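Please produce the structure of this protein holding zinc ion.
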Amino acid sequence: MSTYTDLMDFARQTEALAQISGRLGWDQQTVMPRGANAQRSEEMAALEDVLHARRTDPRLGEGLQQAEARDEVEAANLRELRRAYARHTKIPARLASELARITPLAQTAWEEARHAGDVAAFLPWLSQMIALRREEGQAIAEGGDPYDALMADYEPETDSATIAATFERMRPRLVALRAAILGADTPPALAGHFPQEAQLRLARRLAEHFGYDFTRGRIDLAVHPFSSGSGDDVRITTRVMVEDPFNCLYSTLHEVGHAAYEQGVDAAHLLTPIGRGVSMGVHESQSRIYENQLGRSRAFCHWLHGAMVQEFGALSVPDAEAFYAAANRVTQGYIRTEADEVQYNLHIMLRFDLERALIRGQLEARDLEEAWNTRFEADFGYPVDKPANGVLQDVHWSVGLFGYFPTYALGNIYAGCLYQSLSADLPDLAQDLARGEAVAATAWLRTRLQRFGALRGPRDTIAHACGFAPDEGPLMDYLEAKFSELYKL
Ligand code: ZN
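Below is the modeled complex.
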């Protein structure tokens, strides 16, 4: 592996294997027979062994020392390869394999515990997962903060102190906005029975309107909506609740945003280190801007109202404006994924503080439920009624995703910046969206951001797209303007 070309051939093969591993994960959550769980765990661990060996191959390390980039793309590919190599060589093979082995088992245990409302049944798995991820964080951090080390895997070039400071600036404005909204009249929710077939038909239509390429993707049902894969095989999942069509429609738009990023990367970068989203925060900026700034805009809601009347007949809300209010309703609730744009980041702040304490050894699994319930009541003003609405609601910790939650808030922040710039560039945006057309907006995102993949670092990717360094200001201004107008504050 003495040349750049050798390195890239090797990296492409590794990435191809990683895509297979990802597709096994997709399979597990969509169509895998339940009885295959234990075998799948072995299969995943075997593949992980191969991947780990390739990612830490000493020949790769030597090649990376010698290789020199001749242009911007090569420099970015080498940067990504070097970062990954440095990271993977610090993780013992035994640890990587053990994490891969217990992850599907812990996830199944979490699903069952959540269903039964039995936190104690999940605790042994959670303790194991925390112990393994603490160990991994410490191995990577080499004396630094283990939580920051884990977070860097999802969001390079930031740290938890920066995140904490950003959250401290956002919190008072969010709390004040929420208090004002909850003190005003709450608009009626959309009520009724919305058959699964019709919901899925409309969800596919939305995906098409927002540019999802079905020749290189598919939509399936899963307990938790997600997007998986990159390049020419980017699959998304959704879920259906017959009494709440917004759940399916907006989950779909969200995942279409993720998929658009992966489908939108220039074909020349396929299976190369920069041929995918640069970070989870930037990824989430795409899903959130599709879902919220565009999908929950007044103009698009007016079009969606018409489309839903066509699909379901008369609705419980009287007109398009009431429909827009229903799609942006702010009420008391427990669940992060169902939270409105105002309260969503407060959910993230709670998880960020708890998981940071777990990884730093300041909180143990057995005390987590109580810590969650106490914090939730302090932040939201009412107690958690059952574990499925509390500490067992999210899949993340069961699959070892510690350090991931803050990327959701970063995504919202980045989406706020992108939307400010996008709406300034596209004066006809509202008219387009009112016709159900998102082509101009999605083309802007593809041209300015998606096609570059991981060519630039996360903050540079956003700055390049919107023309200024990102911060929380545009998001907070957008939320205050939108909800003050909507709730007549
Ligand atoms: Zn997402």
